[in-house]
Structures are given as C-alpha cells and as structure tokens.
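Open question from group meeting: does this chain pack into something compact, or does most of it stay loose? Before anyone orders reagents, we agreed to write out a predicted structure and look at it together. Recording both the input and the output here so the notebook holds the full record.
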Amino acid sequence: MNNKIFFLRHAETKVDSDTPISKWVLTEEGAKQAEELAKSDVFDEIDIIISSDEDKAFLTA
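Structure tokens returned:
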C-alpha cells in the first residue's frame, strides 16, 4: 500500500481589514482556482480530506 499525504492551503482570499482573518472568503479567482483543482485527476484516489473549519479552507477543500 502506498500512502500519500497532501498539504494544501486555501485558494486566493479577499483581504478585508474589517473582518477577522478566520472569516475571510475566497475571491472570484480563488473560487476558480479551487474549482480547477477539484477537476484535477491528482486527487482521484483520495480517501479522506481534513480541513480547517474556516470558510476559505472549507471552500477550497
């Protein structure tokens, strides 16, 4: 059995100094990046995804 671990960070976020960093959301480009990543075949054999509960991380995952 071959085990692989991938570490990814969230896609591009909208920086908003009036909002806590943990509440930042993805930009339109970030959403596009996440969608393209999801379509990639690199993750075809993934069994589990573990993500932060922050919106930007969850939306990327």
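Observations to bring back to the group:
Residues 10-41+52-61 form one domain.
Residues 30 and 45 are 24 Å apart (CA to CA).
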